[in-house]
Amino acid sequence: MAELKAELLELLRGDPALRAQLRDALGLVVDAAAVLERIERNTEAIHELRADLQREVIALRRDMQREITALRADFQREITSLRADFQRETERLWEAIAGLREDFQRETRALHRTLSAIGARWGYLSEQALREGMEGVLQELFPGAVAIRRWRVHDAQGEVLGYPCWVEIDLVVTADGRTVLVELNSSVSAGDILRLRRVASFYQAREGQRPSAVAVVSPFVDPRAEQAASLAGIEIYTSTRAA
Fold this sequence. Notes:
Elements: H1 2-14, H2 16-26, H3 32-141, E1 147-155, E2 165-175, E3 178-184, H4 190-207, E4 213-217, H5 223-232, E5 235-237
Parallel strand pairs: 3-4, 4-5
Antiparallel strand pairs: 1-2, 2-3
Helix pairs in contact: 4-5
């Protein structure tokens, strides 16, 4: 059987007329018009399919564009809302910081007033103790030969400070015809030296007597106060000087 098929195929290859007779006998006649019609129908179907695909693509593109536009709008709204929330939170934060700053400043001022009051009280007590100590030492060393007093006069014309006030000199020491004015301070600045010079001039005008010397006794002296005292001819006695 296999050999017969091989011989038949060989025969058909070598005989075109036989191939035509066999085709006619088997009804294998090709209808060109039918083939062309089928091709046209397939082509039209392909065109329709392509058109449908293009319409679907265009519709899908429009839908995607709408979705993207909607997403962009939502995103913009969210960003705007977040920015507004952030702005409000920032404003509240700055308000809280401002409140804390005010509270801190109030507490600082209160603490400063307290420390100033403590310092003033301590300075007053220190000066008072030093005054009493010097009076006691001078009276023991020179009994009856030294006169020590505190001088306090009202400056009605404001000659010393520019307005009416009481003017004081802590110690007025008189011995052997000499008068020494002594100021006792817990600290001394250049302003204190200038004020003491005006006080000494005021003393001389009121008492009609020029002091033999003017001195300051203090544990803390500003360097600028030393310069001012040197120019004013005022002696400074201290153990510690400011840097």
